[in-house]
């Protein structure tokens, strides 16, 4: 079954992974800008990273017939450095006209601090100014519920934000309702230990229905599985769900959401 | 949407759930065998409370375990953090 992975950090994966993804049915990837595992030291280091996302990665993906799209930001972890964050935000417009940029992301919160919230709001201003879609990272583990509620407060408090163009990612059982009932898109991340399993994701799809819901692998430099979406497809097939229902979550919904950005031309 | 019956779910998932219970049991056994007193450790208390949720008769167990393991949300956080704005009006 063809699928789109809405959240996958291919800069941290080898080219072998692209081949595996292509063989397993992945036809497009959306890659948000993220934390590299260490704190970058300067705006130029982000400029080089954005070059990698907008130039090198699409070429690498294309070797295996996969369309590569990307999002730009300074991630929530590094947002604690407000000075650097503002330099990066000022630099982002240099890349917004790149052929594969879908919007601003993955912005959000990490430890739910004042600095992180300040920079999150400044990213919202950037997204509004340049009419960009938004992809949001919600915090990990014990910080997720508090951080998601704070993020939703900031989004709901800004009437310039078009909720149908915002994807709130890494939802779990205690945050998904808050996201969906407020009109945003929700992403479930199939990531070992710290996030969701294919089984729990299938439960949430059954419970809330497929509307405005997506799943992703968020494969990155940590222990993760870039082929997690095929695991979800398999789980849903085992439960007896129709191909059409499954395809809605793993292909049609990402396509619908991303098609709101001009660069997305897949399918 | 296809809906499985309770009988189908227990048939499909009994062995998986059994394995997960064994993993938890083995973790608790390792703690018992190890030196040191962690009786009052926050993490052990949370695990114990989480397991009580599994055994109670209420629904939404996954959600309640998540909330148990979460930091509290404070509705007045914007004012407390003084980040400057609550409502932004669009053009």
Stated plainly, the CATH topology of chain A is called TIM Barrel
End-to-end Cα distance of chain A: 14 Å
**Structural class category of chain B:** mainly alpha
Helix content of chain A: 40-55%
Q: In CATH, what is the class of chain A?
A: Alpha Beta
Number of domains of chain A: 1
Instruction: Estimate what percentage of residues of chain A fall within beta strands.
Output: 15-25%
Residues in helices of chain B, as a percent range: 55-70%
Largest interface: A-B, 33 and 29 residues
Strand order of the largest sheet of chain A: 1-2-3-4-5-6-7-8
Q: Which oligomeric state applies?
A: heterodimer
Shape of chain B: flat
Number of helices of chain A: 9
Gyration radius of chain B, to the nearest Å? 21 Å
Q: Radius of gyration of chain A, Cα only, in angstroms? A: 17 Å
Distance between the termini of chain B: 41 Å
The ordered H/E elements of chain A are EHEHEHEHEHEHEHEHH
Task: Give the mean pLDDT of chain B.
Answer: 92
Low-confidence stretches of chain B: none
The total of beta strands of chain B comes to 0
């Amino acid at each position: 079954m063809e699928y789109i992975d809405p959240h996958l950090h291919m800069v941290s994966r080898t080219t072998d992974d692209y081949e595996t993804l292509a063989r397993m049915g992945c036809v497009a990837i959306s890659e948000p800008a993220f934390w590299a595992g260490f704190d970058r030291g300067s705006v130029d280091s982000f400029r080089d990273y954005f070059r990698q996302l907008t130039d090198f990665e699409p070429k690498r993906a294309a070797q295996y017939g996969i369309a590569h799209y990307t999002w730009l930001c300074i991630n929530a972890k590094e947002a604690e450095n407000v000075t650097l964050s503002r330099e990066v935000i000022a630099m982002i417009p240099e890349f917004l006209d790149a052929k594969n940029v879908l919007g601003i992301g993955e912005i959000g919160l990490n430890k739910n601090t004042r600095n992180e919230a300040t920079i999150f709001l400044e990213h919202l201003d950037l997204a509004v100014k340049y009419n960009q879609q938004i992809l949001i990272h919600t915090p990990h583990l014990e910080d997720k519920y508090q951080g998601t509620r704070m993020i939703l407060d900031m989004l709901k408090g800004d009437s310039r934000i078009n909720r149908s163009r915002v994807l709130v990612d890494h939802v779990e059982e205690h945050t998904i309702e808050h996201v969906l009932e407020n009109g945003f898109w929700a992403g479930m991340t199939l990531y070992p230990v710290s996030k969701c399993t294919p089984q729990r994701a299938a439960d949430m799809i059954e419970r809330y229905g497929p509307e405005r819901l997506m799943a992703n692998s968020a494969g990155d430099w940590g222990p993760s599985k870039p082929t997690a979406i095929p695991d979800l497809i398999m789980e849903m097939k085992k439960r007896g769900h129709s191909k059409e229902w499954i395809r809605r979550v793993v292909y049609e919904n990402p396509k619908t959401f991303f098609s709101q950005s001009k660069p997305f031309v897949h399918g | 949407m296809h809906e499985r019956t309770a009988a189908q779910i227990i048939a499909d998932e009994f062995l998986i759930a059994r394995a997960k219970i064994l993993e938890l049991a083995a973790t608790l056994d390792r703690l018992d065998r190890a030196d040191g007193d962690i009786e009052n450790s926050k993490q052990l208390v949370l695990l114990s409370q989480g397991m009580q949720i599994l055994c109670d008769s209420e629904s939404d167990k996954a959600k309640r375990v998540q909330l148990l393991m979460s930091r509290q949300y404070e509705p007045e956080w914007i004012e407390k953090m003084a980040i400057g704005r609550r409502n932004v009006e669009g053009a």
